[in-house]
Specification:
Blueprint (H helix, E strand, L loop, with lengths): L4 H16 L16 E2 L2 H8 L5 E4 L1 H19 L2 E5 L6 H9 L4 E4 L2 H10 L4 E4 L6 H11 L3 E4 L2 H10 L7 E5 L21 H12 L2 E5 L10 H17 L5 E3 L16 H14 L7 E4 L3 H4 L3 E11 L2 E4 L9 H5 L6 E5 L2 E2 L4 E7 L8 E9 L7 E4 L20 E5 L6
Parallel strand pairs: 1-18, 2-18, 3-4, 3-10, 4-5, 5-6, 6-7, 7-8, 8-9, 9-10, 12-15
Antiparallel strand pairs: 2-11, 11-12, 11-17, 13-14, 13-17, 15-16
Bound molecules: pyridoxal-5'-phosphate (PLP).
Length: 417
């Protein structure tokens, strides 16, 4: 996939800055601040007169959710938050994470490893994709200082050991399988070891590495804190059966954002459940607590502006769609994203009616049935802002049908949610 030109520019700036000016604080290699912060989407449209979708970034919102999470998990529970880079791999987001105190990153690929290293060279990186290529493992270990690797089968363990030349300083994390839960996005189908294999794997990992962990993922946008309780109980049971001393209990991601119409419990409730369950099991007491939050940290910090190329009755043909940054807003998620219309620098008011969205490609799957409630006076040429797309928005973008181009802008107004 071709890289977003803005991201390429940011990364090259970061690399350039890193080469010529090692940071004074010894922390962030470079923090790239965009040249201008606009008041809101209306000001962006007036200034840029864009012909392609625009991704809006709100650093103040990122700051709020990250500091909230860090104070709850890292300070409150003594845990370590590892930002799940896949949810938004924007170099600015990564740099800001580091500035706000995030010291560890959950990475899924060698490219994510390179990206994080280029922005914050001292970060701890955990390679949390259960299926990795030998080349990626080798480069991660020897070239990028990665020591933490996840696995969910014996073959992957063998691969990690071989690719690292039987390294003696690994932290091996066994990803546990969970039954399909009630999270909005199920992640149980693809990865994870179940007992008795999980027990066997833990024993094997224990003789292969000085640090051993277990991890799980309760599913993304998990509105039920008890899902963490159940998963921690399963983890404790497996660790007890394996009779090992556990170093890491990684409770994964899944912490929800508050999309319209959804009222997940406050983050504090999740923390209470995790703390209570963790304290309950003697076999977990040797373990540090880790988490891999993605969506909950970044969702509110981004929105997308997309233009109505044609209004055909109640159907709107947009210049962004499910092959672009509206993948989640279209087919993948069962919830609604907030929408509003911008015209002449202002939000369009008026009686609302239900619209369906169609993306720009020729594929019939490139459709979002909504209903999206927007003013009935909406016309071809208006711009629609889709909010809460800081997570799994720009990162899902493809160049299918040649529609991959986007612009980026930073805005100062509150999150649109
Ligand atoms: C291994 C892993 N960790 C963390 C995350 C982030 O999850 P979320 O965005 O739900 O917090 C994901 C998402 O797919 C994942 O696969």
């Amino acid at each position: 996939m071709e890289r977003n030109p803005f991201l390429t520019q940011v990364i090259s700036q970061v690399e350039h800055t890193q080469r010529i000016a090692p940071n004074a604080s010894g922390h962030v290699a470079a923090f790239v601040t965009p040249e201008h912060t606009y008041k809101n989407a209306g000001a962006v449209l007036a200034a840029l007169q864009p012909e392609v979708p625009v991704h809006l970034f709100r650093p103040q919102e990122l700051r709020q959710s990250v500091t909230h999470f860090l104070s709850a998990f890292d300070e409150g529970l003594g845990g370590l938050s590892m930002y799940a880079v896949k949810s938004n791999p924007d170099a600015q987001v990564i740099a800001q994470m580091w500035q706000l105190g995030v010291r560890a990153f959950d990475v899924a690929s060698l490219n994510e490893i390179k990206l994080v290293r280029s922005v914050c060279p001292q970060a701890m990186l955990a390679f949390m994709h259960p299926v990795k290529s030998p080349m990626a493992i080798r480069a991660a270990y020897f070239d990028y200082g990665v020591r933490t690797f996840v696995l969910d089968c014996v073959e992957e363990l063998e691969k990690i050991l071989a690719a690292t030349d039987n390294a003696l300083d690994l932290c091996l994390v066994v990803r546990l399988g969970l039954k399909k839960g009630n999270a909005k996005i199920d992640l149980s189908a693809k990865f994870g070891a179940y007992p008795p294999e999980a027990v066997h794997l833990l024993k094997l990992a224990n003789v292969s590495a000085p640090e051993i962990g277990v991890s799980f993922h309760v599913g993304s946008q998990c509105e039920d804190p008890q899902a963490y309780a159940r998963a921690i109980g399963i983890a404790a049971d497996i660790v007890a059966q394996a009779e090992i001393e556990l170093d890491v209990l990684d409770v994964g991601g899944g912490f929800p954002a508050r999309y319209p119409g959804m009222t997940p419990p406050d983050l504090g409730k999740y923390m209470d459940v995790i703390a209570t369950e963790y304290a309950k099991y003697p076999v977990l007491q040797t373990a540090k607590l880790w988490a891999e939050p993605g969506r909950g940290l970044v969702a509110n910090s981004g929105s997308v502006l997309t233009r109505v190329e044609l209004r055909k009755g109640q159907n709107l043909y947009l210049n962004d769609g499910t092959y672009g940054s509206l993948f989640d807003a279209g087919s993948a998620c069962e919830w609604r994203f907030p929408v509003r219309v911008w015209r002449d620098g202002k939000v369009l008011k008026g009686t609302k009616t239900a619209f369906s969205f169609y993306g720009p490609t020729c594929d019939s799957l490139d459709a979002m049935k909504g209903p999206f409630m927007l003013p009935d006076t909406l016309q071809t040429g208006d711009w629609i802002e889709v909010g809460q797309l800081g997570a799994y928005g720009r990162t899902m973008r493809t160049d299918f049908n040649g529609f991959g181009d986007v612009l980026e802008a930073q805005v100062a107004d509150k999150a649109f949610k």
